[in-house]
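Researcher: We plan to redesign the surface later, but first we want a full-length starting point. Tokens attached.
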């Protein structure tokens, strides 16, 4: 008798096709209808891997549902809501497809993205699956015809014809057309012939271009392709052959074919239907940025200009970019991607200036046309950060220097902050609103938010390290201790916050004074005292209103002011990422150093941390595990004690509490961290006030946020202060 089966063992047997081991599992039926941790079912696992005997056993003997959906992975992408037939068709397992159809699987069943099994086979070119659908048509004539006429559309408006054209599967495309598939357009306004041209499949373009001239009259309305669209397809085909495969001569031949068709038909150039009018301010702005990227290079309009371009390699290499901007439009992902790709080629040839010009233009396209937190933007920022660091490192390493305009880095920072602001719904607490938090397959936007935040920290580090290395601390404002005679006066402190705050704006306050001339040590102590004692509401308004006055000082350069404003915007947004980590948590983490393929800037970074704290970042904020930046930093064993000591000093000067505890009661003064505190030479008694000691006593006797009576009687800022200790 077999041993009690483990859920994962059952799934492994289905994946490996071990039918004999699967049969020995008692109580197998209870696992058949369940989804495993990765979203798969037993039947989906067997169908995905082509194990027809296992699938037959699960269906006939265990009662597996042939329509139960799950999650499956193809080419490192997880597809949700897929039935077993879709998995088998996408993987090209014909025997499994035949089995499922014979057991009553619906051939027109769709995934959550409205994709059918036939469409999945179209994309991957599994012609044997098409043959099976021909057999279905003989027995059920309406199924395939209905499918072809609907030309089932995905969420991004791709049809099966688009997928056949994009994959170069001409035979599958012909099969669909023979069953009266309709030529629809995708969300970017591109028909299947344009999809084939964009993927550089010449045979698909030539077949579809010639098809509408030879089809019977009754089908001409379904397959009609205008002359203008044919011309655009040949232009785009040339651009794709040039960029994707470096087939320069084939690309030029396609462009000559487009010129020939235009000359014969006397039609104008195809313009992307989604482009704004040429006098639109955004288009004018793009044209201004395009002057730096393309210079005097213009798209060819006749054969003589094309012949002249053959003698100018630089101008010829820019033609595919200009063609895509006109034909696909500036918002198409491939338009932006190939601008960045061409820039990377220039960078490989040590022409960094042309690379940066093209990438700046791509940055403007992203700013205007792309959604926040999209993968294209995140990948572009990684490329920017890698190139910036490479150029800056070369300049400081004795290699040939390239002038890198710091405003380009600040532009990247500004756009990244814009994207974060527009995508704050994916911040930690807004996105899940539960504890603990874990990423799922639906959290791609939240992951991209985390990467945007990390990249912002790298951009800040570059500016501080290479352009503002001697950045002086911002002027400090310290609060004078108010006269408090009774506990009632202390409890009324938040009520007078707005009055004190108003006097700060008018510059007439006696409660806060500018101490720019005071020594750094006194400033640090004053700020530390303010962060510990002032109510959060007053402190927030103080930072918001006074910081902008600091930034407007005439002594600051425009670069300095612009940079600080963008950093200040990021601090004000306070985006929270994985595990609820804040900007301060990330700045103190060595894991922040790696983004993309390799390390860009080194973290923890004292300069970035100091600037964030000066601009109002909370040094005592807690993540989902209750860890504050100081405790989070001390818990990282990869950090050297000297690095931890320097971070400790910076955090304490910025207002962090040495005696702040996490959920386990651990704090920086615990004996396990004594060596770090000793190396920092931090004067502990100067940073622990009587209020801190009182808060610790109050918490021990039951003054916590879980006490409803105290929550009703004590101000929120006092409860938070007690909870901190």
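Model: Full-length starting sequence:
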């Amino acid at each position: 008798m077999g041993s009690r089966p483990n859920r994962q063992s059952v799934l492994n047997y289905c994946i490996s096709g071990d039918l004999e081991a699967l049969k020995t599992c008692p109580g197998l039926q209870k696992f058949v209808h369940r989804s495993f941790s990765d979203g798969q079912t037993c039947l989906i696992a067997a169908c995905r891997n082509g194990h027809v005997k296992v699938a037959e056993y699960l269906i006939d003997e265990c009662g597996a549902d042939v329509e139960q959906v799950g999650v499956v992975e193809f080419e490192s992408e997880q597809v949700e809501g897929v039935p077993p037939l879709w998995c088998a068709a996408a993987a090209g397992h014909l025997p499994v497809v035949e089995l499922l159809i014979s057991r009553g699987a619906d051939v027109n069943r769709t995934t959550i993205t409205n994709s059918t099994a036939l469409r999945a086979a179209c994309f991957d070119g599994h012609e044997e699956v098409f043959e099976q659908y021909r057999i279905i048509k003989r027995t059920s004539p309406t199924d395939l015809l209905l499918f072809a006429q609907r030309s089932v559309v995905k969420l991004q408006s791709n049809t099966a014809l688009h997928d056949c054209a994009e994959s170069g599967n001409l035979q599958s495309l012909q099969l669909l057309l023979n069953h009266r598939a309709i030529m629809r357009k995708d969300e970017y306004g591109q028909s299947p012939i344009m999809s084939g041209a964009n993927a550089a499949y010449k045979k698909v373009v030539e077949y579809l271009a010639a098809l509408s001239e030879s089809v019977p009259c009754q089908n001409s309305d379904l397959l009609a392709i205008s002359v203008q669209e044919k011309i655009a397809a040949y232009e785009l085909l040339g651009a794709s052959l040039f960029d994707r495969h470096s087939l320069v001569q084939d690309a030029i031949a396609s462009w000559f074919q487009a010129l020939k068709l235009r000359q014969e038909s006397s039609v104008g150039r195809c313009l992307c239907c989604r482009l704004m009018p040429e006098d639109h301010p955004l288009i004018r702005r793009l044209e201004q940025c395009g002057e730096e990227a393309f210079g005097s290079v213009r798209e060819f309009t006749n054969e003589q200009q094309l012949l002249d371009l053959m003698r100018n390699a630089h101008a010829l290499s820019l033609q595919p970019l200009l063609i895509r901007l006109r034909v696909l439009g500036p918002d198409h992902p491939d338009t932006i991607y190939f601008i960045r790709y061409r820039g990377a080629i220039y960078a490989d040839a040590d022409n960094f200036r042309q690379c940066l010009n093209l990438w700046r233009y791509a940055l403007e396209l992203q700013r205007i046309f792309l959604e926040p937190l999209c993968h294209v933007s995140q990948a572009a920022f990684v490329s920017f950060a890698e190139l910036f660091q490479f150029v800056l490192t070369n300049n400081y390493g004795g290699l040939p220097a390239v002038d890198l305009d710091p405003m380009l880095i600040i532009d990247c920072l500004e756009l990244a902050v814009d994207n974060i602001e527009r995508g704050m719904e994916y911040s930690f607490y807004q996105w899940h609103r539960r504890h603990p938090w874990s990423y799922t397959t639906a959290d791609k936007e939240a992951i991209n938010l985390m990467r945007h935040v990390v990249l912002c920290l790298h951009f800040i580090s570059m500016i501080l390290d290479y352009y503002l290395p001697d950045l002086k601390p911002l002027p400090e404002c310290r609060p004078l201790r108010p006269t408090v005679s009774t506990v009632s006066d202390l409890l009324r402190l938040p009520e007078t916050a707005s009055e004190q705050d108003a006097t700060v704006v008018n510059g007439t306050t006696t409660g806060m004074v500018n101490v720019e001339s005071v020594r750094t040590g006194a400033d640090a102590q004053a700020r530390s005292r303010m962060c510990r004692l002032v109510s959060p509401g007053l402190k927030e308004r103080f930072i918001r209103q006074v910081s902008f006055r600091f930034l407007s000082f005439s002594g600051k350069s425009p670069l300095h002011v612009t940079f600080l404003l963008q950093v200040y915007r990021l601090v004000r947004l306070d985006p929270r990422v994985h595990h609820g980590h804040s900007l301060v948590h990330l700045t103190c983490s060595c894991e922040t150093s790696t983004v993309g393929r390799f390390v860009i800037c080194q973290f923890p970074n004292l300069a970035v941390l100091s600037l964030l704290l000066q601009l109002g970042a909370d040094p005592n904020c807690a993540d989902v595990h209750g860890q504050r930046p100081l405790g989070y930093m001390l818990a990282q064993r990869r950090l050297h004690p000297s690095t931890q000591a320097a971070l400790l000093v910076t955090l304490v000067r910025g207002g962090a509490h040495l005696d702040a505890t996490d959920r386990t009661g651990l704090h920086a003064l615990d004996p396990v961290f004594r060596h770090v505190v000793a190396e920092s030479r931090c004067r502990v008694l100067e940073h622990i006030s009587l209020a801190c000691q009182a808060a610790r006593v109050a918490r021990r006797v039951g003054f916590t946020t879980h006490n409803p009576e105290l929550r009703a009687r004590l101000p929120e800022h006092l409860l938070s202060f007690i909870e901190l200790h």
